[in-house]
Description:
- By secondary structure, the protein is mainly beta.
- The protein has one helix at residues 33-42; strands at 2-5, 10-15, 21-29, 44-50, 53-59, 67-77, 82-87, 91-96, 100-105, 109-114, 118-123, 127-130, 136-141, 145-158, 163-179, 184-187.
- It is 5% helix and 62% strand.
- The protein has a 16-stranded mixed β-sheet that branches.
Amino acid sequence: VRVHNTNGRTTVIGEERDDIEVCVMKMARAESAEAASHMLDEIRLVHGMNGDALGLDVEVPRKWNRRGHANLELRVPRQTNVDVSVSNGKIAVSSLCGRVRARSSNGSVTIEAVTGDIEVATTNAKVCCAMTCGRLLARSSNGKIELDEHSGSVDASTSNGLIRVSMEEIGMAGVQLATSNGRILLELPED
Length: 191
């Protein structure tokens, strides 16, 4: 599944299911109730297949005196690979056994209970991952990175913020952590 949301929160939850459920909550602000209602009608979720992957793209028209956004919640089969990109919104991904790629500008990224390779990048926000397993690549500019109970390899860097990592098990590629302005705290497994 590939998701692009221009302005709003995107949540992906893995479940024991064979289909994909998408819930969209649209919100608009404008100079009048009528203009806001018109704006809600203009916010669209465009979908289609790109090879064997479902693509979802939120289109929000921009006008100087009107603001709109859409929050998405996807419930997908647990074995789904996910690629999410968001501008001005948070990303949350949980309970998957597949590859996860999440990119956000001006919004935090939270990954929980994921087994598979994870690639996370954000600007002006934090990255939080918990109970993950696999190769984890995390990048943030101007935000902290917190990785709890990870098993596998880690490559994490931020330009301005704390990096805190607790490892359950270290993978073959090891652990690489870097920050240009902040502390690094690393908890290694007791073995």
